[in-house]
Amino acid sequence: MSFWEIALIAIGLAMDCFAVSISAGTTGKNFTRKNLMLMALCFGGFQMAMTLLGWLAGTSFKSFISAFDHWIAFGLLAIIGGKMLKEGLEKESEHHSDYTGGRALLVLSFATSIDALAVGISFSVLKSGMLVPAAMIGAASFLFTLLGGGIGKKVGEMFGKKAEIAGGLVLIGIGIKVLVEHLI
């Protein structure tokens, strides 16, 4: 597989990280540079690790995970997106969650990296090397998360609660997209 093919795969996988980080950035006050860096490290790390895990698991694991991976991704993204949507509709004084740390960050990191597991499995079928592609996938996800989070922060500052509502809808939409792509 050529460098450019791997780069395109890496960018494709990073798009979910980009969209989710935009959504998380709209939540506002808790979205600091430090939190964005942590999110980028987690998203990039999970993408890389899941790619390697998929490669190691090989084709025998593919039939097991492909039966329900889309449902897991949909459920996790719908729950987090629904929570963001709910909080966007609440009064301003109510507490808002921080999607850049703790359990929420781990859930989002896992949900956005499920496709990387499938890509790793496909690389094992092709009998290609995995360290360079996994590193490229992790790096692209890291960079696109930083970019998306910066955009989301600006949008959140400009549009406030409307941006948080939109962010929740985006996460739900990504979950639905994952589900539809795998069911059709």
Structure description:
With 184 residues, the chain is mainly alpha-helical. The protein has one domain: Growth Hormone, Chain: A (Up-down Bundle), CATH 1.20.1250. The protein is built from six helices and no strands. It has helices spanning 3-25, 33-65, 69-89, 102-125, 131-159, 161-183. Helix 2 (33-65) crosses helix 4. The longest helix has 33 residues, at 33-65. The protein is globular and about 55 Å long. 46% of the residues are buried. The mean pLDDT is 82.
Inertia-based shape: globular
Q: Uncertain regions: pLDDT < 50 for 5+ in a row?
A: none
Mean pLDDT: 82
- Secondary structure tally, helices: 6
Total strand count, please?
0
Order of helices and strands: HHHHHH
Helix content: over 70%
Q: Assembly state here?
A: single chain
CATH class: Mainly Alpha
Strand content: under 5%
Output the structural class: mainly alpha
Architecture per CATH nomenclature, i.e. the level-2 architecture = Up-down Bundle
What's the number of domains?
Answer: 1
Notable characteristics:
184 residues, mainly alpha, Growth Hormone, Chain: A, 6 helices, globular
Short synopsis of the structure:
The protein is mainly alpha-helical and 184 residues long. Helix content is 83%, strand content 0%.
